[in-house]
Amino acid sequence: QGDGIFGDKYNQNLWIYTADCMPIIFADKKKRLIAAIHCGRKGIEKKIIKKLIKIFDNQGSCRNDLIVAIGPSITKENYFIDRYTLEKFYKKVYSKNLSGITKNSFDLRSSLSQKKEKIHIDLRKYAYIQLINENIPHTSIEISSLCTYELVKEFHSWRRNKTLSRQWNFICQ
Fold first, then answer.
1. What is the pTM assigned to this prediction?
2. Ranges of H-type helices in 94-167
3. pLDDT reported for residue 109
4. Contact yes or no for 143/124 (Cβ under 8 A)
5. Which residues contact residue 67 at a Cβ distance below 8 angstroms, ignoring those fewer than 6 apart?
6. From CA 158, how far away is CA 57, in angstroms rounded?
7. Are residues 55 and 6 in contact, defined by beta-carbon separation less than 8 angstroms?
8. Is there a contact between 52 and 37 (Cβ–Cβ < 8 Å)?
9. How many CB atoms lie within 10 A of CB 169?
10. Which of 36, 54, 102, 114 has a CB 3.0–4.6 Å from the CB of 98, allowing a cystine?
11. Is residue 120 within 8 Å of 77, Cβ to Cβ?
12. How far apart (Å, rounded) are the C-alpha atoms in residues 51 and 22?
């Protein structure tokens, strides 16, 4: 029914499932608030991360108290889009108000590589950029290096074999 869930109750568990998209888990270590989102290219485009952090803000969270984990997902080497989709992605994601360090991250040459008409894009990088732009300290962000596409025995992958099976991701309070 949705791509995210937020919790503010003691002893609460939040579960989401993913295949190649990123499970992104959030916790406010002082207020004991938790959240989990399912985030892929469309989630990045729709700024689901920013919307979730706004929910934390509305609950009185401080950005320095948030910790974030980006779980296993498809890597840049295995995720590709066509040029039309890339142009739409950049129009929706790019903002003129980015900090100097972040502007460099949106440089087409540093974010993409081309191979046989396929344009590879690093969704983890854009999730990280959105977190940094929301003033989440880089020391509070962990990113898994595991690829759901490559690790056949460990993970399900829609892009690899069109399976309807998924990984369950959770956070407990």
1. 0.85
2. 100-105, 108-111, 123-133, 158-161
3. 41
4. yes
5. 26, 27, 29, 140, 141, 142
6. 34
7. yes
8. yes
9. 20
10. 102
11. yes
12. 16
